[in-house]
Design brief:
Length: about 375
């Protein structure tokens, strides 16, 4: 766990007047990480050619080594992109699917990815389907069984969340990867929320593709996402923007996708080092324990049923809890309520619809505490 003394020493860019319970959306930056990126931007502006053309390749290679070690993977299989959704787009364009092929995900899929998969299959003559996995969920075995039962003879690709955005459920990806291997189904893991929230060893998981963000729980700058590719697909997976280094090597292609701001990538490596100084294991344990506590407080206050086991076995640093009876079941009305509690109470938290019912998702980070839940409850009661 992270001590109160250490937590108090970390300065964040967030407005201290806001009760910020939405780290899961865009993360938040410690002051030291933000200032490090600003310094990198100044270095670029002082001498753009020196920074990007002469030194850029080496700088990105050093950042990749830091990120790869953190993710538990080989740097040779790691490419940088803007975000996890972009990485999924890179994978989709590389697919060569047979007629009547089916891409499946689950009902927990992030909506942006859902639309990406719908657009891809509509254009390429394949089909997209979601395996309906209702909550509450209690064990990993239950999830594995539901996913397997959802496969068909036409299923060729599974796109699976490591941590579901809406429900906060941590999926047992290692076990599901093994089941896909038995069935000759390729599997893409959407780890948008996983880095910094969960301890990762991507080489050990060994999916076909793994994508993630470094701006969420790693607290790096926006614009730092990654794509890990199994060696079987290194030669066929390319960035969406093909540039000078086409077919000259996976990392070479992904390192240069036209002119872009590499300070996000370099800043992500700085964020990893920031967390290492505190202790990533301590950060993860602190955030998990706090998320479990937040979940329990909301369940006890509202008398609602939990969406997953209250011992926290199926969540990481976020918890999604049903709102009690009487709250809007219309998406637009929920959006208006979210804006109202922000404007009137300075509470920032996502209110969402899940299985037709309203839910709230709370995020635990070093700058939050259980008292924030009391503020949220009061704001929603006002």
């Amino acid at each position: 766990m992270v001590s109160e003394e250490v937590r108090n020493k970390v300065q964040w860019m967030l407005d201290p007047d806001i009760t910020y319970l939405n780290h899961g959306s865009f993360g938040a930056r410690p002051v030291s990480v933000f200032e490090a990126q600003i310094d990198l931007k100044r270095q670029f502006e002082r001498s753009p050619i020196q920074f990007l053309d002469r030194e850029g390749k080496e700088r990105v290679a050093e950042a990749r080594a830091t990120v790869a070690a953190f993710l538990g993977c080989s740097g040779e299989q790691l490419g940088f992109v803007e975000n996890a959704t972009t990485a999924i787009g890179c994978v989709l364009q590389s697919l060569d699917l047979p007629a009547r092929a089916e891409i499946v995900s689950t009902s927990h899929v992030y909506n942006g990815v859902r639309q990406l998969l719908r657009a891809f299959t509509k254009k390429n003559g394949s089909t997209y389907r979601e395996i309906d996995i209702q909550t509450p969920l209690h064990t990993s075995d239950e999830i594995v069984a539901k996913v397997i039962a959802g496969f068909s003879n036409h299923t060729k690709v599974l796109v699976l969340d490591h941590v579901a955005s809406i429900t906060s459920i941590v999926f047992p990806v290692k076990e599901i990867i093994a089941e896909c291997r038995k069935r000759n189904i390729t599997i893409l893991i959407d780890g948008a929320h996983a880095p910094g929230m969960l301890e990762l060893d991507i080489d050990d998981l060994a999916p076909d593709w793994y994508v993630g963000n470094l701006h969420k729980w790693v607290c790096g700058p926006p614009g730092a996402g990654f794509l890990w590719v199994n060696r079987d697909y290194l030669k066929t997976t390319h960035p969406l923007t093909v540039s000078h280094f086409f077919e000259q090597g996976f990392t070479e292609e992904f390192d240069w996708q036209g002119t872009r701001d590499i300070t996000s990538i370099l800043g992500a490596a700085v964020a990893i080092e920031w967390g290492t100084t505190i202790g990533w294991d301590a950060i993860r344990k602190h955030n998990h324990a706090l998320a479990v506590c937040m979940q329990q407080r909301l369940i006890d206050t509202w008398g609602v049923l939990p969406m997953s086991s209250l011992d926290g076995r199926l969540i990481g640093s976020m918890a999604t809890v049903p709102l009690p009876h009487g709250y809007p079941t219309d998406e637009e009305q929920l959006k208006n309520l979210r804006s109202k509690i922000y404007q009137e109470h300075k509470v920032e938290v996502p209110l969402l619809l899940w299985q037709g019912s309203p839910v709230v998702r709370v995020s635990a980070q070093l700058y939050t505490n259980v008292e924030c839940i009391g503020t949220l409850i009061s704001a929603l009661s006002g």
